[in-house]
Design goal:
The complex is a heterodimer of chains A (248) and B (621). With 248 residues, chain A is α+β, with helices and mostly antiparallel strands. Chain A has two domains: 2-77 and 91-123, no CATH class; 132-243, Immunoglobulin-like, CATH 2.60.40. Helix content of chain A is 40%, strand content 23%. Chain A has four helices and ten strands. In chain A, the strands form two sheets. Chain A has a five-stranded mixed sheet, with no helix packed on it. In chain A, helix 1 packs antiparallel against helix 2. Chain B has two domains: 18-85, no CATH class; 111-601 and 616-620, Cytochrome C Oxidase, Chain A. Chain B has helices at 25-46, 54-74, 78-84, 91-97, 114-142, 153-174, 178-182, 184-188, 196-219, 239-267, 280-311, 325-359, 366-380, 398-407, 409-423, 432-455, 457-463, 467-497, 503-529, 544-574, 588-591. Chain B has 21 helices and no strands. The chains are: A alpha+beta (248), B mainly alpha (621). The interface between A and B is large, with 89 and 87 residues. Bound molecules: copper (II) ion (CU) (2 copies). The site of one copper (II) ion has 4 residues of chain B, from helix 12.
């Protein structure tokens, strides 16, 4: 049996569906990341949320296209009745479709790459000449933070205190297993490894409290390896630092 | 159409052959336990009890004893031993090992018939998924409310490791195991696999490895996730030794299976079966097998070094001895990323096959489909460090790895092109395989897009190590691969059993699983976005609602899987008879009788065209 059914259908409803789903996707993409993610307290976090938005908006027409095509296919070409469906037109190739599809995905990918690499460069740049250095030590299952105190002393704390508007460089290590040092409101994380130092930096730009959580599985109390951070005004930070007992 | 069902075939008792004729799963278990006990006794008495690593060495040797004993018991060593002493197997022996006239008993044996091995893989996959699923339910039950203590924290941590590894092993074999063995040789027009005994070896080695993995639950003392990153593994007890050994043995199984699949396709194709006339499923099977051959040696290596660190106090991964955990992470992810595509590609290839048959159209742009799979496999070996963006290892490599990783969206996009192109303007037969295929498409787009976020370093710096990642790869593994595997099961089930998988039960299972996946993993994305790290045994009240919803969704998926599992078991003997070619397809597996006879073809067919010309159906007697 050969098929006389050419199965061509008007594409109008497909385009309408695609447009509606795209608009829906774009609206969700614009608002969901900011609404769902922790309140931004640093430029890195701001960049992270912004990149989420850009990527979601770019992905919205792609996802909408796949969903619209799938729904359109189910609506128009699902075989009705009990028998075996007749053969459909034997479309084996369409150079135009393959080239268009591939080019579109290449262009989108290149756009995302340029954005991503740009954002990465911004994130890595801007090391200020006078950053605050905080040494971070993880051990099962507590964080501790060491600062250079007044007159060459050392200050240690289990809460993380940071001044607003000044770049902070964290030097991170672990005394036992690997931990993950993450500041959800700052958009930065890196592992704490035994015997070596890793480094991240960020500039807090909002006063208030934030979280410190462990993102690397570290044993029994991994879920409880949390502490609090506080962004203070520069003068309040200095006051806090000077009030700490000095350690040798 | 009439159906001859195999379990009605008369069982003829074989004469002669001695003990070797009575080997089966039971003797394998006895052999394994005996081997483990002997190895334990020897190791326990000979090794110095005052050395720190002795308990680990004893555990590893006990595990090795189990494996060797299991091989002995099942009969894996019979043929090599016979060959060694100059007694080659006779044709009669070979037919015996192929299970001739042994009825259902042969499913419990070291059987060389590729169709029996295929069925054994179906059962193994279901057992592994079932065990992993029970652990998933335990994990989600623990997390249903904050601070719950349904299981204690130590046990919970072990569950995370074993759940992860069981599911990974199950999915590695979920499509390539059953269908790579059952249908791929017939699709090529082969009488069996190139190395039938190796085929049986791969299956029974998997069984032995799975046994070892499950004992880790009984031994306990696993303190890490499935990626078993050093140095936390140092704190794990002997469960870790079994865990590492189980993986090592598993890689033997996959390597043997992969070599076998590739050799079969390249040497056993029938006359006229050119590479471009192969059903697309066959391409998926060999591309995945080849990728596995590249990737799994890293897996063997990382576990072997791990075992050496634990038993001989070497320090490959131990910082204090000059090693580094980063070495372990690199080796692990050199395997770990390709492995995702070893899992995914066979499922996608099966869906290409299903979409063509069900839409009554040729695979759209067959060569693009192959290029997409090859491209994905090729790129996947260059992206491993995206799993290490936040480890602090080689920050300057972040940019290059971001580039290779994001390029993956191009071949992945080709999968959608081929699937949608094949369905476009088709006459789509909305049967159970088709329904699960549509579910795959809907889930896979979400899996893909959320993967792009994580490939981007500024986003990954925020989301790495959170529930967002967990939700992402569950959309890949559950929403996509599992749906594809179930579509493949529904599609080829009639060829195995001569009966349909029940349409109604299958659809109930589909809706439970499909809605369950959205509920579970969408809410898990939200938990991650809001800041909940992975592998938490407890969480603060701000994550309360999303976790509750996730658990409810997980129960729905489990309910769906129970319905499906029930349907698979029930329909095996009681389903609606299907005849030998229920989908009116043209590839060779549908043109042989159901169930296919031993050695598949009396006369090897000669092929003149690819199997996608649905206009003129080939009828062969
Ligand atoms: Cu931790
Ligand atoms: Cu990966």
């Amino acid at each position: 049996m050969t098929s006389s059914n050419e199965n061509k259908k008007s594409l109008k409803s497909f385009y309408v569906l695609w447009a509606i789903l795209t608009v829906f996707g774009v609206v969700v993409s614009l608002y969901a990341p900011g609404y769902l993610m922790p309140k931004s307290m640093s430029s890195s976090m701001h960049l992270s949320i912004l990149t989420m938005v850009v990527f979601s908006v770019s992905a919205a027409p792609v996802a909408a296209g796949v969903y619209a095509a799938t729904l359109y296919i189910m609506r128009n070409w699902a075989h009705k009745g009990d028998g075996v469906p007749a053969a459909a037109p034997a479309i084996r190739e369409s150079a135009k479709t393959v080239v268009t599809w591939t080019l579109t995905s290449v262009i989108l990918t290149v756009f995302l790459l340029i954005w991503g690499l740009g954002a990465l460069a911004v994130d890595n740049s801007g090391a200020s000449s006078n950053p605050l250095v905080v040494n971070v030590t993880g051990q099962q299952w507590v964080w501790s933070f060491q600062y250079a105190g007044p007159n060459g002393t050392k200050v240690e704390s289990n809460d993380l205190y940071l001044p607003e508007g000044r770049e902070v460089v964290f030097h991170i290590t672990s005394l036992d297993v690997t931990h993950g040092f993450w500041l959800p409101q700052m958009g930065v994380q890196v592992d704490a490894n035994e015997g070596t130092f890793t480094e991240i930096h960020t500039t807090p730009n909002k006063l208030g409290t934030f979280d410190v959580r462990c993102t690397q599985f570290c044993g029994l109390n991994h879920a409880f390896m949390v502490t609090q951070g506080h962004v203070l005004t520069p003068s309040a930070f200095t006051t806090w630092l000077n009030a700490q007992p000095a350690r040798s | 159409m009439t159906t001859t069902l195999e379990h009605k075939a008369p069982v003829i008792k074989h004469e002669g052959g001695g003990l070797a004729r009575h080997q089966n799963f039971l003797t394998a278990m006895i052999g394994g336990i005996a081997g483990a006990f002997i190895a334990w006794a020897i190791a326990h008495h000979l090794l110095d009890q005052n050395v720190r690593t002795t308990s680990d060495a004893v555990a590893v040797l006990t595990g090795c004893g189990w494996i060797v004993g299991f091989w002995f018991g099942i009969g894996a060593l019979n043929a090599p031993f016979a060959w060694l002493v100059g007694k080659d197997q006779t044709r009669k022996d070979q037919l015996y090992y192929a299970g001739e006239d042994q009825g259902t008993k042969r499913y419990w044996k070291y059987c060389t018939d590729h169709k029996v091995v295929g069925v054994q893989y179906i059962v193994m996959t279901m057992v592994l998924l079932g065990a992993g699923g029970i652990l998933a339910m335990a994990i989600r039950t623990e997390l249903i409310v904050p601070g719950n203590h349904f299981v204690n924290q130590q046990v919970y941590n072990g569950f995370i490791a074993v759940h992860g590894m069981l599911m990974i092993l199950a999915l590695i074999v979920a499509v390539a195991g059953p269908w790579g063995n059952f249908v791929v040789p017939i699709m090529c027009g082969a009488k069996d696999m190139a190395f039938p005994r190796l085929n049986a070896l791969s299956l029974w080695t998997l069984v032995a490895a799975a046994g070892l993995l499950l004992t880790t639950l009984a031994v306990g003392s696993l303190t890490m996730g499935w990626v078993v990153l050093a140095p936390i593994t140092d704190q794990a007890g002997v469960g870790m030794d079994f865990f590492a050994l189980a993986i090592l043995v598993f890689t033997v199984s996959t390597t043997v299976a992969g070599v076998n699949t590739i050799c079969t396709v390249f040497t056993m194709r029938t006359k006229g079966m050119t590479l471009e006339r192969l059903p697309i499923m066959v391409w998926g099977a060999i591309i995945a097998a080849a990728l596995g051959l590249y990737a799994f040696p890293y897996f063997s290596l990382v576990e072997a070094l791990q075992i050496l660190d634990r038993t001989f106090s070497t320090s490959f991964f131990v910082g204090t001895g000059g090693g580094t955990g980063w070495l372990q992470a690199n080796l692990f992810w050199l395997m770990g990323h390709p492995e995702v595509y070893v899992i995914l590609i066979p499922a996608v290839a099966a869906l290409f096959e299903i979409s063509a048959v069900m839409a009554r159209k040729p695979v759209f742009s067959y060569r693009t489909a192959i290029a997409g799979m090859v491209g994905l496999a090729g790129l996947s070996i260059l992206v491993w460090a995206h799993h290490m963006f936040t480890t602090g290892w080689a920050p300057t490599l972040g940019g290059p790895f971001m580039v290779t990783t994001e390029l993956i969206s191009i071949p992945t996009g080709l999968f959608f092109l081929v699937l949608i192109g094949t369905l476009w303007r088709g006459n789509i037969w909305m049967k159970l395989p088709t329904v699960w295929m549509f579910g795959f498409i809907a889930n896979f787009i979400i899996a893909g897009i959320t993967g792009i976020y994580l490939s981007d370093i500024p986003i990954d710096n925020q989301l790495h190590g959170t529930m967002f990642v967990t939700a992402h790869f569950h959309y890949v593994f559950v929403g996509s691969v599992l749906f594809g595997a179930i579509a493949a099961l529904a599609f080829w089930y009639p060829k195995v059993t001569g009966r349909f998988l029940d349409e109604k039960l299958g659809r109930i299972a589909f809706w439970l699983a499909f809605i369950g996946v959205q509920v579970t993993f969408m809410s898990m994305f939200v938990s991650g976005l809001r800041g909940m790290p992975r592998r938490y045994s407890s969480y603060s009240f701000i994550f309360e609602h999303t976790n509750f919803i996730t658990t409810i969704g997980a129960y729905m998926i489990m309910a769906g899987m129970l319905v499906l599992g029930g349907a698979v078991i029930y329909c095996w003997n009681h389903g609606e008879p299907s005849g030998s070619n229920p989908w009116h397809a043209n590839s060779l597996e549908w043109l042989v009788s159901t169930p296919p006879p031993l050695e598949n073809f009396d006369v090897l067919p000669v092929i003149t065209e690819d199997p996608y010309n649905f206009g003129k159906e080939l009828v062969r007697s």
